[in-house]
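hey so u asked for the seq, here:
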Amino acid sequence: MKNLYLSFVCLFAVTMQAQNYGTVASRKLHMAEFAINNLYVDKVNEDKLVEEAIIKMLATLDPHSTYANPDEVKKLNESLQGNFEGIGVQFNMVEDTLLVIQPVSGGPSAKMGILAGDRIVMVNDTAIAGVKMNTDEIMRRLKGPKGSIVNLKILRRGVDELLKFTVQRDRIPIFSLDASYMLQDKIGYIRVNRFGATTPDEFAKALKDLKAEGMTDLVLDLQDNGGGYLNAAIDLANEFLGEQELIVYTEGLRTPRSEFFAKGNGSFPKGRLIVLVNEFSASASEILSGAIQDWDRGIIVGRRSFGKGLVQRPIDLPDGSMIRLTVSRYYTPAGRCIQKPYENIEKYNMDLINRYNKGEMMNSDSIHFPDSLKYKTKKLNRIVYGGGGIMPDYFVPIDTTLFTNYHRSLVAKGIIMNATMKYIDSHRQELRNKYKKFRDFYDKFEINDSFMNEVVAMGTEAKVEVNKEQLKISEPMIKIQLKALIARDLWDMNEYFHVMNATNESVLKAVQILQSGDYEKKLK
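ran it, structure tokens below
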């Protein structure tokens, strides 16, 4: 009884103290949390209680105000800051075993002699092979502070006993550019997968290298790029725009208008530019493509972008967790709000599916904008549209002709990936000897019937029932995916996209626009 009395005394004290600060609502929240923690009939987890309350509060605001726990914050920072600390290998899980695709060049594993094709079976005397350990758990064991030591046991083809390696962890770079190469004579191609801290430097180097190869026109691929740091998008826009040309501005109820301008010292201010976007291009991708479109600096090709134009401010909490709170909106130079409506959260979450069902992914005529959303570009007074997302100048429908349920099942069950790993494991040295240069591989390597039969057999074993009609339809796509994955293993992501882009309709459309004179017609 005494303890209960003391709790009431404490609650009264907190109530009286709370009257001296905050709004009625904030005092109410503080009192409720105190009462539950001190008076509830059963023991409560205060941390979980507060965390759930924060999550529920943010969920009532908008789709992009979010809470991240300390582990999630660390993962987010790794991907955007451009590095993490670990052993430095690219890997895939094949039949419950970690198969090294590539050791990171110059990284700890490469320095110790770990090779592509090696299977890591033990980490610090703990078996990770054949025990159905999930990927996150394996990553946790391989990652660690720079300078720390990890002992590995590795199974290598052709070697009877397990090989022992002692690897000192180091800082491992995460690159935000997937690919950079010459598409055609004078046409360069750069694919950016996110806007991180290292993106401007990576992009500047890629641009310089391509110009040295004779590039005069650039295809910038932002398909599937979900965004990242605002400053990175501004730095990339600066490569193309003139001095004091507005890139983007932000504004909110309690956040005054902030404007961001190009400095005019970019490396590609005049060359022809095409930016590729699709329904998964969001946030920073839309800032960059919107600035390019509004200043008539280049042509946007693809499908309407996602429509995320809310600005989040990170608020660090004492335990290492973080709130990302929406504080303002992005606007393009012409004044377009990038953010699509979000009053109905359920409808917002279903937006891409609804676009597909309405036919928007197949035909631009299915997309309708009211006159109130019309804007004019800054130099040529072309009509562009607001209301969420960037509508491309040239629409490219989504290509579903080669996709079937049979193909989707093979991908979902990991058959395409596992078949590739199995093939490379058996033919790695033969492939390296035969194809010294990627160009030879690109021109001459073909997926033969034997390989395709192996894919079908592995699918059957995984209970993916063969559908001969659908297999015939999807076979060209399966073959190009297999070839691209082999190229990635033998070389890197650059070569993967080089192969895949041979069938990418948006990339092909960009090349056609540059070669046909359509570019000049659109921006005359």
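Confidence is low (pLDDT under 50) at residues 1-19. The CA atoms of residues 18 and 27 lie 6 Å apart.
lmk if thats what u needed
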